[in-house]
Every structure is written in C-alpha cells, then in structure tokens.
TrEMBL record:
Residues 17-42 are annotated as: Disordered. InterPro entries: 6-blade_b-propeller_TolB-like, NHL_repeat, TEN_NHL. This is Teneurin NHL domain-containing protein. Pfam families: NHL (PF01436), TEN_NHL (PF25021). It comes from Hymenobacter lutimineralis. Gene3D superfamilies: TolB, C-terminal domain (2.120.10.30). The keyword Aminoacyl-tRNA synthetase does not apply. The keyword Repeat applies. Residues 193-236 form the Teneurin NHL domain.
Amino acid sequence: MKKRYLLVLLLTAACTQKSSDDSPEPPQTTVTTLAGDGEAGLVDGSGPTARFDYLWGATLDAQGNVYVADHGNGRIRRITPAGQVSTYADFGRPANFAEGPVGVAMSPKGVLYVSMEGQGPLLQVSASGVVSDLPGEAANTSFRYVRSLATDAQGNLYVAELLGAKIDKIDPAGNVTVLAGSGVADHVDGLGTQAQFWGPSAIAVDKQGTVYVADGSCIRRITPAGQVTTIAGSSTIGEADGNGTAAQFDTMYGLTVDANGILYLSDRSTVRRITPAGEVTTLAGGPLGGHADGPASSALFGGTCGITGDPATGLYVCDFGNYVRKVVTK
C-alpha cells in the first residue's frame, strides 16, 4: 500500500513538473536600433552606417518599408526591413528650423503625403518619387502647422492642425472638410465643430475609421460621424500610467494604432500603450533620455517622435538622437 502511495506521489510530481515546464513564457518586449549611428548627417547606407538629422514623422508601406521625415535634411528617407536607408524624396535642405518635412502618411495606393513645418498646403509623393500638390481644393488650402497626418482604408487623409486647433479630412478627390474642432484652442468634447482641441500634435486612424488624436496632455477619440470624446489623460502634465483621466502624458509627438485598436504613443522619451478601454502603460523607455537597446525595462530613447507599425511585427520609432528604433514583443 505504501509503495502504491509513493508511486502516485511521484507520478503527480512528474505531471506537475511537466505542466510547469510546458507553460508558455510571458511575452517579452525588446528594443533594437534599425538605422543610424547617433551623429547628425546625411548618409544613405545600411543600419549604423546611415545618418539622419532630426527625425520627425514615420509611416509604413504595404511591403514593410519605413518612411521617415528627415526634417533637418529636408528629405524623406526610406528604410527597408533589413535597415537599408535611401533618400526617397528631396525637398531641399531647409534654410532654418522653421522649414522641412514633419508629417508623413502612406495611402493604400502607395501615395505618400507630406506636411512641411509652418503654414501652407500639403504635398504628395508618387510611388516613383515625383513630388506634386494634392488634387482639387486641397492644393490651395493652407493648414496651420501640421505635425501629423494619417490615412484610412478608403484613401482619405486626416490632418492634425497644431495651431489651427482642428482635424481636417481630405477625400481622394482633394475635397477638404473639418471633421472636428472649432479652430479655437480649448478642451471641449462634442460633435464636429462644437468640439475644441488645445493643439493636435499626433493622429492615427483605425480600421473602422475612428480617429485618435494626441492633444495637449490628453488622448481624444473621434468617431466617423465627428463625435469627440477624451479617453485618457487630463490637464495635468506628467508620466503616470493608469486608466482614463488617472493617466498623465508629457510631450506627445507620434501616435499609431494596431488591428486590435491598441494605441502606441511617443511621449517624451518613452513609448506608451493605450487600450481601447483607456488603460495606459509604459511599453518601453524611461524619463531619462539616452540610447540603450535591450529589454524594454532597461531600453532608453534620446527622445521619441514619429511612430508606426505594431510590436507584433515591428513598431518603428523615430528617436531624436538620430536613430530609427524597432520595438518588438514576442
């Protein structure tokens, strides 16, 4: 009887050990450097041989190439998934800091939209690299400091006017409408032009056509019908994680959304994650800037700006330290 009892204990222990060994490990997030060596310059090349000069916006094409606004060089640079950097469009080196490309967004048809620092119309770059004005009304419309652009599956372009305090929508024919915002800087939720924004600095659109905006120290959501609500953050500036208004944001420059409706935000020198329910966590980076690859808990950014993609396949971040970083969770 004792032998049988001992055998049962041994079998139970073996099964328990096997179950423990077979349990999946929790997902791990890591940060690597895709391109750049940290020095300012204009050098095409592979990975660390390439150089940039003050990166701003970022977007992806259907093949997984990353396009970044190289503000200081007045160029759009393309980076392959393997880290090969080339010049995609050349607008000429800006005469001062108040010029140069800042916002970029790729259309479903491979047209790249670009906003320039300051006030003026937007530009587009064809798949063959030809730069031209947008069609229709959009060609003659001046927008006030557009730091961020986004497109939806139907080819509509969304424009975040930092100083214009509103969100515009441009259809493929170039017709311009105001999706939300009165043009007066304030924080008011509401429908269409009844809503008010402090200063939209980053924008993203999900697959349902819902628009998300980084505005002041809050994250705002706009339905396709133009209804604006605040989903996270408050008037208090900080770096606190939490749900809804308990969360705090500091300096928001980039925003993207994945297929599950999860937002990824560039905030000062961190990458933040925001669920559809408004739960905010810090995915990578910390309050102290620097440059360190590795696990998200110890990785450092010189300053986060443009952001595109998602951690499952590759989240690409423009680092003010003249790097393009890649964040992956697996």
